[in-house]
Write the structure tokens for this entry.
Amino acid sequence: MKKRFFIVCSGFLSIVISINCFSQQKLTPEFKIGIAKVSINPDTSLINNYKIWLAGFMKRRTATGIHDTLWAKAMVFDDEQKRVCFIVIDAIGLMRDDVVDIRNRIDVAHLGINHVIISSTHTHSAPDLIGFSGPNPLKSGVNQEYLNFVKQKCVQATKDALNNEQSAYLKLSIIDTIPEDIVVDERPPIIIDKSIYLMQIVDKKTNKPFGILMNFGIHPHALDAENTLITSDFCHYWRKGIENGIVYNNKLIREGIGATAIFANGAMGGHITTHGSNTYDPWLDTSFTKSGFEKSMTIGNKLADIVLQEIQEGNWAIVNNPEIRFQERKFLLEIQNKRMIGIDTLGIINRKFIDSKFIETEISLLTIGPAWILTIPGEIYPETLIGGIENPDGADFTENPVEVPPIRHLMSGEYNFVIGLANDAIGYIIPKTLWDKDAPYAFGKPFHEEETSIGPDASSKIYLKIKKMIEEYNYINSGR
Ligand SMILES: [Zn+2]
């Protein structure tokens, strides 16, 4: 009898335990991340037949070869309630119509993905995906076969990342300042966002990172218009240094972490670049001002070195089981730049204008616990992001700046990533009070950014949309 009672009790106990385990599983969703990378290098037959036009520098160049691999790198964040995919491609930019096409091809609903963010590193040595860099001003530089290939690869990267999902946690940190000799602001006022926002993605079982997101605002301009080889510029050396270590003359200078390194550009407008910087290479004991692969390697390795240093000695916040939240806003922007309207009429750029003078664009806010990731559809100015907007005498408009306080002050995450050229490539987002197309000029000369901006009112409209989205996000989540 006693034995039977014991069996009944233990049976009851095991039911209780299993109910407990079940309810615990329910209460603690598993946070997972998947990462994948896929080459988006064009087929050599396209290059050999001079069918690839390199984007950027307003110069007409056909690609003559491949120096390093262009990548589509995808991360899928999954808290079992929401799943968001974030892809970064090595390209000058990608228009929103193409981003929407990629989302449709991914079949987000079927895969249970709530949203897909696609941003570009802004390398100026990759095939033109926008249209400005064709054989002549009347012809698009986009090779449709290559564009279609990039879209297929983004779909593949997403699916691979999904298949690679594993239990993970985050480590977050910010590098406050970068070596002064890397970056130049070519357009006054001189304001540079010198911080690098970092997110390590760590395997929960082994405590080893298998991915790292690095967010910093800068034009990859270590190569210039003379270069005709396909390359992601210093992004290649930076990511390679993190992944495999920093190597000079076959000698390992600093060990890498073996994790997939992803660089997402930030506030690069206004005009933040490596062009003209005199960068010292401590391992070669030489400085490079002239553009070229040596300078590209020096900048990439210096950035890799400070990130590896931060990984080794930095103060990292550990984030377990964060909740994913997501907001997006779509809206119309008026094309005030008549040159742009002409370009659309000629079919040079890869997007549809609405009523010949509007485009639909988007902003979004992805929050993963204390990490906030804001996406901006073009090249935002550091002045708008971290402060320092002026209305100098000589600028075309006299009024108080709308973009105050700066965007990062509006964000209330503990780690506020801001991703430029995300989900669209609308060009420079110039604050109206710095718009300076007509003489007299505030800083003695005109600058080129107005040529590739859609107009002086875009910046304030985007800023106000961001402000409202963040206010609504805070309101929705205030009671949670
Ligand atoms: Zn640019």
